[in-house]
Design a protein that fits this description.
The complex is a heterodimer of chains A (329) and B (328). Chain A has 329 residues and is α/β, with parallel strands linked by helices. Chain A is built from twelve helices and twelve strands. In chain A, a hairpin with a 2-residue loop joins β1 and β2. Classes of the chains: A alpha/beta (329), B mainly alpha (328).
């Protein structure tokens, strides 16, 4: 059984639907990447897994199964037992995600004392251990520092220490390195990966950086306009991205052999951009797609299995690849 | 301890600012008072009904009012350097003694009013923020708007009409029951009963100001990322509001409260007069009417010291609330 399964999740805000019928599963101990551009629903998906959506958001349908138990049906008190203990969160902006008026020791100790019945003294000792674990030098002195005393990379390490304090099974890292400079990025991601192995937890890595995905993730989910358009393991994905959007993301001009089939049916006039897809029927990527067909505009394509562990929401591309394989095989 | 060092730094900084401030206030006050028409000799003469030019000159000479202005100022300052506030010609008493009998009353009233304003303002503001847009918020908004727009003395008058005249629950005058030699709890209760109405009248406007401020800054804090971090730890919402939100929301409130202390003391003149409260505000008013400048200068000096001390306390509170301030 998967550690956590998201089933058919749809989240709406007043005026628009941010996440549509998203389903995926996270296996114990793996790093799953959730990739897409800003505003495609990555963070909303992550926040709904912890039921931390903003008050104006509404979960229309969907279940979040943690070890088989539906979190959407959990009471607020049960949910508070899950947060920080079974699922924890690292946010994008380490500058603002720590409380500026509380010392980092207080903020880490808080989560330990919330979930484990330990004395203040024990909690403090654990804090120092955790700060050591995330490679903060002079942990016993740093523990009384305030967030403004620390650099961005250090703050993100503190956030990580806080997130792993109670040994969660799943760590949601929402663009953990976007706000950091490149050298710090690699250190923080190395640290996350190291902790994942040592604490045997799963990581949901939300990012828009495919370089990060290639290096640190086991599997990838590509999101576009609130939908998952491709699910794959890392190697096959980078060897052959299947959804037209994935190809666009990779920046690869996919040089499919000049096939009459595509060029004949390609529409020359394609109105709209990312935003305009919202009101239209059919595939949300259709207005920007180089290989769009009339059938794409009828109903949004659902995820179709291609091979084991690989699904793609583009029948056109799937057919083309299958034909290709048949021709070569 | 880090905290101790931060507090020491704040104290040092304030002390360096305080001395020149007080000196400036005194000199400015002294010169401004010279612009007022008439002096203590005029008032005493007019009250006694008959006065010759000779007796008035004698009075002026006795009080030192015949000296040039600068000499008077230098005299006053040199006495001040020995902690001598001078002598009241009208009351025939040392100014320091007069003020010291009145100071505790004013301090008690000010501290009570400010605490009342802060506590009620924070509670009301937090409740309004927690139910923002729903009926508790709307109902309290109306009350707060009333307090905001009504002058303190009018609130005081209406409170006297309701609680003293109609209901007879609370006394309307003085700071204690005269002639009743109470001890222990009865004494405290008696003082508290006399304190409620003037403190409320003085605090009403500030309750409204702080409630609105706390509401706005609490709503502002809710959008911060660290609030989601706190939720993601599994903390109880009440605890999150108390520890993570309120503490951040109080920073602007303490800033404003520090600036309000002067206003509060000014308001005390009106409220003390209204409730017959024996404080410095009323003493100042009496001193102005009697042209008793040495008393008035003493009151002004003590008031400025009071505001400075209260500001130091606010600064310390500020440094405790926000660790980023002490570091600067």
């Amino acid at each position: 059984m998967s550690l956590l399964a998201v089933e058919n999740l749809t989240v709406a805000f007043p005026g628009h639907v941010a996440v549509r019928e998203v389903s995926f599963a996270i296996e114990p101990g793996e790093t799953l990447a959730l990739v897409g551009e800003s505003g495609c629903g990555k963070s909303v998906t992550a926040f709904s897994m912890m039921r931390l959506l903003p008050p104006n958001a509404r979960v229309v349908t969907g279940r979040i199964l943690l070890d088989g138990a539906d979190l959407m049906a959990a009471s607020p008190a049960e949910m508070r037992e899950v947060r920080g203990k079974k699922i924890s969160l690292i946010q994008q902006e380490p500058m603002t995600s720590l409380n500026p008026v509380l010392s980092i020791g207080t903020q880490i100790g808080e989560v330990i004392r919330r979930h484990e019945k330990v004395s203040r003294r024990t909690a403090r000792a654990r804090c120092i251990e955790l700060l050591d674990l995330v490679s903060i030098p002079d942990a016993h002195r740093r523990i009384d520092d305030y967030p403004h005393n620390l650099s961005g990379g250090m703050r993100q390490r503190v956030m990580i220490a806080m997130a792993v304090a109670c040994g969660p099974k799943l760590l949601i890292a929402d663009e953990p390195t976007t706000a950091l400079d490149v050298t710090t990025q690699a250190q923080v991601l190395d640290l996350l990966d190291d902790l994942r192995r040592r604490l045997s937890m799963a990581v949901l890595l939300i990012t828009h950086d495919l370089g990060v995905v290639a290096q640190w993730a086991d599997r990838i989910n590509v999101m576009y306009a609130g939908r998952i358009v491709e699910q794959a393991a890392i190697r096959p994905f980078f060897a052959q991205p299947m959804h037209p959007y994935s190809r666009g993301l990779l920046g690869a001009r996919v040089d499919v052999d000049a096939d009459e089939h595509y060029s004949a049916s390609r529409l020359s006039e394609i109105p709209g951009s990312v935003g305009s897809a919202a009101g239209e029927a059919g595939c949300p990527f259709a207005p920007r797609c180089p290989m769009v067909e009339t059938s794409c505009r009828v109903v949004p394509p659902s995820l179709l299995a291609f091979e084991a562990g690989r699904r793609v929401a583009c029948p056109v591309s799937l057919q083309a690849v299958t034909l290709e394989a048949a021709r070569h095989g | 301890m880090r905290m101790g060092r931060r507090i020491a730094a704040t104290l040092k900084r304030t002390a360096i600012h305080a001395l020149p401030t007080v000196l400036g206030i005194i000199v400015l006050d002294f010169l401004l008072l010279q612009l007022m028409p008439g002096d203590a000799a005029d008032v005493i003469a007019s009250e006694s009904g008959v006065a010759t030019a000779e007796t008035m000159a004698a009075l002026r000479q006795r009080f030192g009012l015949d000296q040039p202005v600068l000499t008077q100022l230098v005299n006053f300052l040199s006495h001040l350097a020995q902690f001598d506030l001078g002598f009241s010609p009208r009351y025939n008493m040392s100014v320091l003694d007069m003020i010291m009998t009145r100071l505790p009353g004013t301090v008690l009233l000010m501290v009570t009013a400010l605490s009342l304003a802060l506590v009620l303002g924070i509670v009301v503001g937090s409740v309004m923020a927690a139910w923002a847009g729903r009926w508790p918020d709307r109902a309290l908004s109306v009350v707060v708007l009333l307090f905001y727009s009504m002058p303190g003395f009018w609130v005081g008058l209406m409170a006297i009409v309701l609680f003293s005249v109609k209901l007879g629950w609370l006394p309307s005058d003085g700071s204690m029951t005269v002639g009743a030699s109470l001890t222990g709890w009865a004494f405290v209760a008696d003082r508290a009963k006399h304190l409620i109405l003037p403190a409320l009248a003085l605090a009403s406007f500030f309750i409204a100001v702080y409630a609105r401020l706390v509401r706005a800054s609490m709503l502002e804090v809710q959008r911060q990322d660290f609030m989601r971090t706190a939720q993601a730890k599994g903390l109880h919402p009440f605890f999150i509001q108390l520890r993570h939100a309120l503490r951040n929301a109080l920073i602007p409130v303490t800033t404003v409260a520090g600036m309000h202390l002067g206003n509060l003391l000014g308001g005390a003149v009106v409220v003390e007069t209204l409730f017959g409260w024996p404080g410095m505000g009323r003493l100042a008013l009496e001193a102005v009417l009697a042209r008793d400048f040495s008393v008035l200068l003493g009151v002004l000096l003590l008031s400025s010291l009071l505001v400075i001390i209260a500001n130091v306390l606010i600064d310390l509170l500020h440094a405790w609330l926000d660790p980023r301030i002490g570091a600067a």
